[in-house]
Amino acid sequence: MSSPESVYDLPIDKIRYLYNVLFKEHGHQGWWPVSLNSDNSKAEYHPGDYDIPKNSFQLFEVCTGAILTQNTSWKQASKAILNLKKERVMDPGILISLTPERLSSLIKPSGFFNRKEKILRIFAEFFLGNGKAIPKREDLLSLFGIGKETADSILLYGYKSPVFVIDSYTKRILSRIFNLSLSAEYDLWREKFHDAFRREPGRVKTSLFNEYHALFVRHAKNSCRKNPVCESCILKEICYHRNYG
DNA sequence: CGCCAGGTGGGAT
DNA sequence: ATCCCACATGGC
């Protein structure tokens, strides 16, 4: 048991158990941050309220945030979002009418601004053409700059679809607890979570996946950092890394 | 100062 | 398949 197990062996009962432990400890996280007042106020978390985003404007803001936060702290992404809202351009139709220079300057704080300018523009075109339908994952993935995590974040936190979002935090935590390889395929991790909650109704899965991903982030920031703080970790009793790593 | 943050695409091997 | 790099800001 010294070499990493396969992600195929990840036990689904422990996936469910883990959720219960984390939720009991931390409760509702309320991802994704959205400004509840439709003005220029800062986006905030809304723990326990799964009826967000409530309209197309908030939906577009969630999607925009998913793109702007790529490999960037939410703090930086939120500055860019605030710039867009203050300039009244947080709207797909208006966004695509901006010059590349103007748009990239507004999202500058989020980093990679030339790249993200292009991604936002392409996504806004897609958003307009897609109407009110829930986008297909493969269609999102076909867009430049929309990878698996961003696509799933948009589907889960934007369109309230029951899909699980895997990010580097999730992989780090699971790889330590279960002695799994960090480099396992995204879709393998994802399917395991879908398997674990296969029997829950769609609406339940959506709110559960919403909380679960947020709880992983919380736990990764609290304890399971790059340099983990194992002594005070609430999962230390069941963690491979803590006990045998 | 160096490291890091709610990734992704593209090119070389 | 798997590694490596560019992309870039600002907090800590």
Give the tags:
245 residues; mainly alpha; 12 helices; 54% helix; DNA-binding
Describe this structure in words.
By secondary structure, this protein is mostly helical. The chain has helices spanning 12-26, 56-68, 74-86, 92-95, 100-106, 113-130, 137-141, 148-158, 168-178, 186-196, 202-222, 240-243. Helix 1 crosses helix 10 (186-196), helix 2 runs antiparallel to helix 6 and helix 5 (100-106) crosses helix 6 (113-130). The protein is globular, with a radius of gyration of 19 Å. The mean pLDDT is 94. The structure holds a DNA duplex (13 and 12 nucleotides).
Beta-strand residue percentage: under 5%
Mean pLDDT: 94
Shape: globular
Please compute the radius of gyration using only Cα atoms: 19 Å
Helicity range:
40-55%
Unreliable sequence segments: none
Number of strands: 0
Q: Distance N terminus to C terminus?
A: 10 Å
Order of helices and strands: HHHHHHHHHHHH
Number of helices: 12
Name the structural class.
mainly alpha
Biggest sheet architecture: none
Summarize, please.
This protein is mainly alpha-helical and 245 residues long. It is 54% helix and 0% strand. It has helices spanning 12-26, 56-68, 74-86, 92-95, 100-106, 113-130, 137-141, 148-158, 168-178, 186-196, 202-222, 240-243.
